[in-house]
Amino acid sequence: MSARRPLGVAVFAVVLVVALVAGSAGFALADSDVAAVDDGAAHHPTPDGDADPETSVVENGSVVNANPDSLPPGCEAVRGERRLTVDAGREYAADGDAFGYDLDSVTAPACTRLVVTLVNHDDVRHQWVVDGLPTDTYPGGYVAIEAADRGSVTAAFVTPSEPGTYEGLSTLPQHEQNGMRLPLVVTGDRSSDTATATSDESSGSVPGLGPLLALVALAAATLLAVRR
Amino acid sequence: MADRPTHTATQASPSTPTSLSAPSLTAVSTAALVVLVVASAAVAGVSVAGAGGAGSVAQSAPTDESVCSFDRPAWRAPQLVAGVRVDAERACRPDDPNVVAVSVLGTNDAPDSVVERSGLARDAVVKGADRDGDGDADVVEVTFEALSVNGHDAALSRAVAPGVTPAMWVFAPKTRGIVVPGTPAGDLVRAPSPPLRVEAGDTLRLTVENTHYLPQSLAFPGVDAAVVANGTRVDDLAALDDPVEPGEARTYELTPEEPGTYAYRSSAPGPNAAMGFSGMLVVVPNAAENPVQTLNVGGGKVRHPPEGVDHDAVYDLHYQSIDAGLHEIPQQYDDVRAIAAAVTQTYDATDASPDYFLANGRAFPYTLRESVVATEPNSSYALRVFNAGDETLPLAAHGHDLTTATRNQAQSGGGDPVALAPSERETFILQTAAESESNAGVRLLHDPRTAADTTAGIAPGGSATVVAPRDALGDDGIPDTANVSRYFDAAYYAGDVPTWSHLDDPRLASPPVELHPNQTTTTSDSPSPAPAPAGSATGLPDAVLLLTGLVAGGVLVAAGVAIGRWTK
Questions:
Q1: Do A138 and A62 share a structural domain?
Q2: Checking CA distances to B163, which of A164, A171, B6, B110 falls within 20 to 30 Å?
Q3: How far A89 CA lies from chain B's nearest CA (Å)?
């Protein structure tokens, strides 16, 4: 029994270290998320930076920073093309919201051309703005697809090389707060599918003290278990 | 209890079977303890960082902003944009000449580049047929979006005074592109709902796209013309039954024949007009070759005044009064049902009392940036005034008379206030003296009620602006006869700055904290104010320190107990 004590201590220490690393990694991740979001201004994109965002007026709306070809930093080639349709309108609003999208999130591999058709089911305009993108390729750090009236607008852009969750929303006042949130999840895995509607609310919540304390408690529990 | 872990740990090391493992065990135990301490410190550090972050966010509101700060000074000059004459506007923040030009030509006739710079949508202002053949369009289609500013967690924050950001609901011309601060579209979304101008006899088709979260509907008080929507004449009761719901649009068509100043306002149940869903509808006399500036975003000077105006300039002045209790409701919830219930059921409009008084969506000192009436000697100015508030609006221009065609208020050297009933509109004429007699200086144009000269009780504030001779304005359009920079400070309107602190007179500084009404202080032996507690030097709330200590202590004790039990 006593011969296992050093082993137990070692396990305990390892678990603790893992807890610390995981905890700090969690915070670091949260920090990088915030930094990505803060890339524009405050909490939302603004057209500042070296280049001006490029607006193209199209039938029934406009697109900012459409980019079917240019490679974002870190991409060696456009790895493929995915097409998806995003439906937007009041009919997709949850209770207590005003508007909504039909999807909860959009998942796509890195460095992939995403051809998005935004379908507006209302008589007011709707947008899907993806923020936090690399500003070298996307001046201001965002792509904006706007359907000015009922109908659709299609635009293409290349997903960044960096996996992660990119904020997606409508910038019309209170639209984001009232239901129009559709994050873009970029995966490093080429085989993952596009436009999967995930049920979880991957709102990029910041890990709090909870996970860290839980891991510490887990370490203590492991220690006690090993003792027996 | 506290020293027990180390005690038992040192005792445990001799009892280990091999000498090899003894030092390693001690080392590992020590390492574990160190790790625990580090973990606790990390927890404490996170708490500290969290508290620090919250504090910095709370203090991130601009505390000492510059008086003007505007990066488009070229907008102030008189200019020709796409062939449209745009008059000078000697204000710190003038209207965008691109928006003025597009409002004159229409989004359908203005060059694409000008429309794109303006931020207006393609269907914001569409000018149609010239029915009477007098060289200007007589059918005007305007698209408004119903939306909100300063809402819950809003990106688009529009302060009406330094640090004062009541939620407001507004009609804004339909824009294109992302609606965030610093974009053309973002700049067009603001209070008040914009003054609309048409010629007498023009057909106005006003489309409201409801991109707000509550149902809306429109009425046109004072307009003596049929209003048709959805093919039927607008009926105020039917509007209650069939409002424009979120996501819907409705076009209101009317052909006002009588020149005058009218209004458009929400007729949906609840305090919608008080929240900001109301604006001026100006009908000017029909004239040849008279394409009018359909939109005057933000009110203020009309930079392309209509033909046949007998005045040197025309100003639109939209007065609002704001009950802070109502206007903070939309900031408290992101649930539409909760806002609807709080605004229409919990909030009692019969208990309303205004806290903020606004002219063109701003209170002093921000009115100095946008709504200064810049005058030349021996000139006359037309002020189109709309009282959108719920109380009678007295209006006085110090040193000037405000006269009207319909009521003669002129008194020799009097300048008595004129009064507008709630919802009343009126055009006032302000005449300046000839140059030789000009000694007017910068004079207040204000609502002289005590409350209306304040912002939530802090003076100077409220809807006051000024009438300023041209030579009293700096290059940035701000009157330069006094230093008003101290009022561009959120702390001042938070009530944190003594009114006369700039006089640097200790007799007018903040009173001692312990001084209560009816108490007296003597100069000889009054105790100096208590020094701040030492703990506050760290800048952390005591509660955070206590909580952090408890958490860290708990973790250490738990670890100690665990190690102690294990080594038994």
A1: yes
A2: A171
A3: 7
The yes or no reply on domain B73-309+328-351 and CATH 2.60.40.420 is yes
- Span B385-394, pLDDT tens digits: 999 999 999 9
Chain B residues 449-508 within an 8 A CB cutoff of chain A: none
- The nearest CA of chain A is from the CA of B22 a distance in Å of 9
Enumerate the domain spans of chain B.
73-309+328-351, 367-504
Q: Which residues of B392-431 are buried (b: 16+ CB within 10 A; e: fewer)?
A: ebbbbbebbbbbeeeeeeeeeeebebbebeebbbbbbbbb
- Residue B80, class by beta-carbon neighbours within 10 Å (0-12 exposed, 13-18 middle, 19+ buried)? exposed
Cβ <8 Å between A44 and B180: yes
Give, for B349, the enclosing helix (H) or strand (E).
Answer: none
In a domain, A199, yes or no: no
Residue A84: phi and psi, rounded to 5, are: -150, 160
CATH class for the domain made up of B367-504? mainly beta
Judge contact between B563 and B4, C-beta under 8 A: no
In this structure, the answer to whether residues A132 and A83 fall within a common structural domain is yes
> Euclidean distance between the first and final Cα of chain B, in Å?
15
CB contact under 8 Å between B246 and A64, yes or no, is: no
| Pair (A150, A179) in one structural domain | yes
Domain that holds residue A54: 45-187
CATH number at residue A146: 2.60.40.420
CA angle B381, B384, B386 (to 5 degrees): 150
Distance from the Cα of A138 to chain B's closest Cα (Å) equals 15
Q: Determine whether the interchain pair B156/A173 forms a contact, defined as Cβ–Cβ distance below 8 Å.
A: yes
For residue range B504-552, what is the model confidence (pLDDT) as tens digits?
888 888 888 877 777 665 555 444 444 444 444 445 667 777 888 888 8
